[in-house]
Structure formats: C-alpha cells, structure tokens
Design brief:
Layout: H1 12-20, H2 24-43, H3 49-68, H4 78-96, H5 116-135, H6 141-150, H7 155-162, H8 167-187
Helix pairs in contact: 1-2, 2-3, 2-4, 3-4, 5-8, 6-8, 7-8
C-alpha cells in the first residue's frame, strides 16, 4: 500500500475492511477524516464542538456495530451515510432539548436514516408484551406454545407428552392456544 493511501480519509472499502479487521489506524483516520463535516453541521445548527464530538462518536459506533453484525449495506458514499446518521442523531438531540426550530441547515447530501435505537426499543416492547401474554396464557397452552415454538418439539412429541389421541388433535389444540395468545397480546395497553 502506498504512503498516500495510509494518510488522509480512508476509502469506503478501507473503512469496512478496517472495521472487520479491527484496524485502529483506519478508525483513527475515519475519526479525523469526516469530523470537520460533522462539526460544521452541528455548529451551523445550534450546537458546539462538544456536541459534535458526542454525535460523531455515536455515529461511528452505529457504523461499527452495523458492519460487525453484517447488518450494513452501503447504498451511498460512506461520507453521505455518516453525515446522514449524524444529522438524524442531532435532530433527535435538538428535539429532546427543545431547540429544534423545525428545520436544519444542510450543506451535504443526506439519506433518510431510521434510528436503530427506536427500532430496538419498539421490538423490546413487543417482546415484553408477548412474554406477559404467554405468562398469563395458562396451561396446557403455555407449555404447548413453548414446546413447539421455543423448544422445537414436533407435534408428534407434543401429542405424546400431553396424551392427545393423534398429532392432528395436538395441532388443533395448538391453533386454539395461539388464538388465545393473540387475543391476550392485543388486549394489552
């Protein structure tokens, strides 16, 4: 690799490979490479240098985690992606501080970025609701649902452990249990 590629802003593929290979030098270059752009965004929109550092750090962590989990698909330039994530995070922060005036002054192209924390929080709420519905389901339904969906037991095994005459009867019972579970789930506030 030439000396020129080792300094300055890394290429998009260098960043992805650098994250996958735990390259500190690529991460350092990424930090210094795009920070001025984020600093300008934050300062132009009611923030300061410390805000910019916080937002940029958060955006890099989001990028890092997405690349590491294989959940990252680059559909634009990395610079645009980072700007978009920082923009989204800053808008959220402004609205939390009641300093959001309804518009933000942009100087870069940006993408609409869905906030992963909002998606994860919503999923956690749904999981908790499902757990609560399952706990209030009662027997034998609770065990049938858990055995089939969580413990990967076959309908034949469930039939034998609950004493049903055949697997079709167990399947019918599982269907009725699912209907009750759905009803309990959707009754919750």
């Amino acid at each position: 690799m030439s000396k020129e590629l080792n300094s300055g802003i890394p290429t998009d593929s260098e960043v992805i490979l650098g994250i996958l290979n735990n390259s500190e030098s690529v991460l350092k270059r990424l930090y210094t490479g795009y920070f001025p752009m984020v600093l300008q965004l934050i300062i132009n929109n009611n923030g300061d240098g410390d805000d910019a550092k916080d937002i940029y750090q958060e955006a890099i962590i989001i990028l890092y985690n997405k690349v590491k989990t294989g959940d990252f698909e680059l559909s634009s330039k990395l610079k645009t992606y980072i700007y978009s994530v920082c923009r989204r995070l800053w808008l959220k922060r402004l609205s939390q501080m009641n300093r959001y005036g309804g518009d933000i002054r942009d100087f870069e192209e940006y993408l609409s970025v869905v906030d992963d924390t909002e998606k994860n929080n919503e999923r956690d709420v749904q999981f908790n609701k499902m757990g609560k519905a399952l706990r209030s389901l009662g027997e034998p339904c609770k065990t049938i649902i858990e055995d089939f969906y969580i413990n990967d037991r076959s309908m034949q095994e469930i039939c034998e452990s609950f004493g049903y005459t055949n697997a079709d009867n167990a399947k019918t019972q599982k269907y009725k249990c699912l209907q009750r579970l759905k009803k309990l789930f959707f009754q919750q506030k």
